[in-house]
Amino acid sequence: MSPSDLYDFLRLRQGKLDGVVLSGGECTLYPYLLEMCEIIKTMGFEIKVDTNGLRPQVLQSLIEKDLIDFVALDFKARKEKFETVTSTKGFDLFAQSLEYLIGADIGFEVRTTVHADLLNEDDINAMSEFLHQMGYNQTYYLQKYLHVSPTLGNMPEPKRNFDVAKLHHLIPIQLRNFN
């Protein structure tokens, strides 16, 4: 969808929708994101950004220019597993985004999609502890990986089960899709 198609789509929904979610891939990679947010905001929509946090300068710019209203920050893995899970060395960039969001005046949540073959209970406990040490005291959302074919990276269904009873609760944890 081109930007003009998006704006036409949104114009038809003014007064019917309250907001827009910009996600991805990774929406902070989009070169015209700030301009897009400015146009969407002038249409009267609130904007939520889903991000992996690897572009903290973009996130900071969006917030300082009052172009977004909420952030969902994906915490992909603990530092020791971050490169294995994400194929990037971006943990420090993620941590920078988290630190900025904790001090910023914007609503946000931290969430992790749990694929039990990639992240175990000890990983989630270490991630929860890291959030706590950083000063994050809001709810930490854990989303169970739902296998849909095909997936990015062709992820198979997890072979092991994830035992939520083994989680420590240094901060509030809310489970999504763990039945």
Task: Please explain how this structure is put together.
The protein has 179 residues and is α/β, with parallel strands linked by helices. It has six helices and six strands, in the order H-E-H-E-H-E-H-H-E-H-E-E. It is globular and about 45 Å long.
Give me the number of helical elements. Answer: 6
Tally the beta strands. 6
Question: In CATH terms, what is the fold-level topology?
Answer: TIM Barrel
Radius of gyration: 17 Å
Please give the order of strands in the largest beta sheet.
1-2-3-4-5-6
What is the total domain count?
1
Termini separation comes to 36 Å
Please provide a brief summary of the model:
This protein is an alpha/beta fold and 179 residues long. Helix content is 35%, strand content 18%.
Throw out a few tags for this protein.
179 residues, alpha/beta, TIM Barrel, six-stranded parallel β-sheet, 6 helices, 6 strands, globular
